[in-house]
Amino acid sequence: MVHSLSQYGSIIFYITVILMSVFFMHYAVKLNSKVLLMVLILIISSVIGFRYQVGRDYWSYASAYEIITSKPTLAEAHKWYSIEESFFLISFLTKIWGGTFQSVLLIYGFLTTFFFLMGIWYFREDIRVEWAILYYSTTLFFGSFNTIRQYLAMAIIFYGFRYVIEKKPIKYCIYVLLAMFFHTSAFIAILVYFYGTEKSWTGKFFRYLNYVLPVILIFGTNQLMSFINKFELGRFENYTVSTQFGIGIFIQIIIVYLYFRSVNAGGNSITEEKAFFVKELVVLSTILCILDYTLGEASRIRNYFSTIEMVVMSSYPSTIFRNKCKLEFPNITIYDAFLLIYYFWFLIVPFFNRDAWVYPYQFIFRI
Fold this sequence. Notes:
By secondary structure, this protein is mostly helical. Helices cover 65% and strands 2% of the residues. A two-stranded antiparallel sheet has the order 1-2. It is globular.
């Protein structure tokens, strides 16, 4: 039986999930309890997994599941549908144990939530986890209702950032390969290792490219796409360049400005090793923000880098969540004000812009 919330009931439901997430994450870190963290992961993944007809891509994945599971073998299914092998395997496994498409959503929901939240857990001594979970629950949480394969790949890459910071290239490459198993575009995340290693010649070379990369992205994208289209990759044929920038890139610049301002003010508590990695990656993510205006949907490759903003924005000085703050402020800071507006904006935009299809929330309890 399908249960459907009203429009306003849905927004109250989402706000409840967000507040619950802040509560559980706060006490999971305060009590150093991975049990509480796992409870939170199960709650969020249940909301993602039991949804019904929620998310722009819901029916495209549901129809893919029906096509794949209607075939007797994996080899036969490959003839009818083109998608990463992981989706084939998960679909067939659910078919074997008598599950439904809801099982697929639960698996993707759990893995995505697990890797994102375990990634936050890694940075817990350097950030205000409450702001981090607010970032997740107002942006990435809703995003994971759509493009479920890529969001899982993004989560795996975010979890793997620790191995760049710890200079463990083999382990990081393993996680890149795992992410590619779910979405092949994750191969681009291999660049993270080069940007995040301070003394290597490759790292220095790639960071020098930051000075020319904006020019290339703005003025050279047409030529790049013309070259790619020579290989007759149909999915790229309709991508064109537009240099009419919107408000998004200016918000991105504000995010970076506030981060560097907080670092210079001494109010940022992140350790030196992690700070270098975060700084380089957020600069690269900001530059790649140009792709949002030049390549449209293809700009989603930036998502593998932009998840670092969850760390950046939760390392601002704060009087609301001041557990790791080195500075004391008598009132709400400019950082607090920006974050509150930012997260409120991402919460209400899907309510008015129905393109994401997250309102109203409907769910069905079946596996």
